[in-house]
Amino acid sequence: MRVAMIGTGYVGLVSGACFADFGHEVTCIDKDEGKIARLNEGQMPIYEPGLDVLVARNVEAGRLSFAVDGREAIGAADAVFIAVGTPSRRGDGYADLSFVYAAAEEVASLIDGFTVVVTKSTVPVGTGDEIEGILRRARPDAQFAVVSNPEFLREGAAIEDFKRPDRVVVGLEDERARPVMAELYRPLNLNETPILWTRRRSSELIKYAANAFLAMKITFINEIADLCEAVDADVQQVARGIGLDKRIGPKFLHAGPGYGGSCFPKDTLALVRTAQDAKAPLSLVEATARANDARKRAMAGKVAKALAGELAGKTIGVLGLTFKPNTDDMRDAPSLEIVPALQAMGAKVQAYDPEGHEARQMLRGVDFKAGPYEALEGADCAVIITEWDEFRALDLERVREVMRRPLMVDLRNVYKPEELRPRGFTYVSVGRP
Fold it and tell me: Which of 289, 320, 336 lies at the terminal end of a domain, its last residue?
């Protein structure tokens, strides 16, 4: 099938490349001429394991291309995907749909023959109705169907998630779209992937509800971690004990410095605003957002406590800045709260992250280093914020030698106390004695 993918950000580029790998003919479209030029040269705008190889393979096979001008691709497409950003609107937390609506306007002028217009971007309930209205007003003569097809991609595992998903959700109001969507996802039949066919508004809400639930699960175990510290219990044992219950499950029960990234922070806020407007407030989700913000701020206090409350003149070696490993995404990363708070208390911060290059523009006054041991050179305290694999097996003898003081605050529980303390470290973790 012929697919036009509007947007070459995280969702659009991964989805477009994976659809091409399924055998479809895909054109990814973006107004950013520099980004398209770099993609045509094989340079990826984001870090996602395996994406460069996937893109190169499908470009070489002639199934994947990139363009600034979408006229030809959209006119020829069986399905046009809108995969542009929906950031939180400044000041009120609502999803900013300006890019979505602009894409819909463009699509309206270019579609030729029956076309399925698919919203891949995360959008509030009712956005599909608005897109349909835009298309209908602009082109009363056009033959189209508007579909909701939310993405459930985890950064760092996006290709696997697209090709072997737990489920595919398709929300539609026009049955003419069903065979088109079924054909697009037909390669998943081999794995017997469940496809949930539902109404468009339900599909839009499924995405927000899923992210809000996972955000609540993370926040729950983080608060349990605080309780564990107060009563001398171990949050990892508690998490395992409740995670073995099949009704709960083990995922997203890892205590840490709070959630961040491109989805959970903005999606929980957008869902809260939708619920408030519908006069059906979601008090649990509202509390989750507040608790997560407070958690990030509290982590700097945890570091200060480990240094007896005195950070002035101290050097802190930070390992990991991105919101999670295997991504270069800095959006709402805990480090963006923790590092400035440490600096405000008088600490000098030197840091290393394998892919967090954006941090150089977002964090001021930080001494960025080329590796983990350089970041810990002369440090009074090591702080692990992101659990990159290369931090899981540090040469602890070397770490102790390069640091001024063998003190580690592990905000991801990468290590075990019994591994660090016999080596002479003072070790502080999250939710453990």
Answer: 289
